[in-house]
Amino acid sequence: MLKTTPVKDQGQSALCWVYAMLATIESERLMQGDSIHLSPDYIARLYLAQQARSHYLGHGRPAITLRGTAPMLIRLLQTYGAMPYDSYPERQPRANYNVLERKLQQTTRHATSLSQLQQRVDNLLDESVGVMPADQVYMLGATYTPLSFANSVCRADEYQALTSFTHHPFGRSIALELPDNRMGDLFLNLPLDTLINRIDRSLRNGHPVCWEGDISNDGFSFAQGKALVNPRLHISQTLRQHLFEQRQTTDDHCMALIGIVRNRKGRKLYVAKNSWGTNNPFGGLIYMNENYLRQNTICVVMRQKED
Q1: What phi, psi does 259 have (nearest 5°)?
Q2: Collapsing DSSP states into helix, strand and coil, what is residue 84?
Q3: How far is CA 96 from CA 12, 252, 283, 284, in A?
Q4: Which residues, 6+ apart, have CB-to-CB distance to 111 below 8 Å?
Q5: Other Cβ atoms closer than 10 A to 48
Q6: Pick from 47, 52, 155, 196: most CB atoms within 10 A?
Q7: What is the 3-state secondary structure (H, E, C) of 106-171?
Q8: Dihedral of CA 143/48/275/71: which sign?
């Protein structure tokens, strides 16, 4: 199993894509010998502030939301930078981001100028999430800006998003039709078997994979730490496509895949690091079988070069 930072709890928020992609980056750097632990709230706060400005200037549109997809996190790192977890840790009790989204929309409706809005938004975010740290990062004797720190842990071209659906040609990068693909990110479309092989190769070579997919089915249980589809079934490309088109397979959740193990029957299981806290039999981890992966994966993000 790959090295990881502690399992976190996203609380009342839709920030699984932030937690999972940051966990993927952290494990990647830890496997390279770095010591790194990144703040989810830093990204969430700055993204909310940006949306509040856009909501105000756009006369109430678009809606303020923290829903997103894993590739968006890499874009936001290039925009806002990154902050170590210890510099901007999760406040206890956790901020309720669902409530915070609504409060920010109310704030934009009552503001009379951009400067007034900015002050009110900053005050609300300070109170709910925590006062922002200094705009410098000190790490191993070096000083970074948040942007240069982000680039040191995750280059813009370091990761690639992959998917597998037949309504687009294989071998092309496509803007996958997901409600949460708000920035129109591109995904390389691959045959299902090729996608699974890429995931396996990445994990076996010591590189984590950010997984995004469906957890609305009966096979997923956080309480039991499992994500299983009957191993006797044949999960084909055709079946997978049918479930997606019938909206039975939906884009629900993100986790970081951090290893491959075998159960007592010798069947392959993928170890997923979740972000719902540690209150399950495996300290917050989920064990996912290959059929679950084949059926319920919407997309993955992994390092492009597995050197």
Answers
A1: 170, 165
A2: strand
A3: 5, 19, 23, 20
A4: 56, 117, 120
A5: 21
A6: 52
A7: HHHHHCCCHHHHHHHHHHHHHHHCCCCCCCCEEECCEEECHHHHHHHHCCCCCEEEEECCCCCCCC
A8: negative
Window from 6-10, 91-95, 103-107, 257-261 with minimum mean pLDDT: 91-95
CB 180 within 8 A of CB 277: no
128-154 tens-digit pLDDT? 999 999 999 998 889 999 999 999 999
Distance in angstroms (rounded) separating the CA atoms of residues 212 and 226: 16
Query: Ramachandran region of residue 59, left (φ > 0), alpha (ψ -120 to 50) or beta?
Result: left
Beta carbons within 8 Å of 230's beta carbon, 6+ residues apart: 291
Q: Please say whether the beta carbons of 201 and 207 come within 8 A.
A: no
Domains plus CATH for the chain? 16-153 (3.90.70.10), 159-303 (3.90.70.10)
Per the CB < 8 A criterion, the answer to whether 247 and 262 are in contact is no
Tokens 């409060």 belong to 103
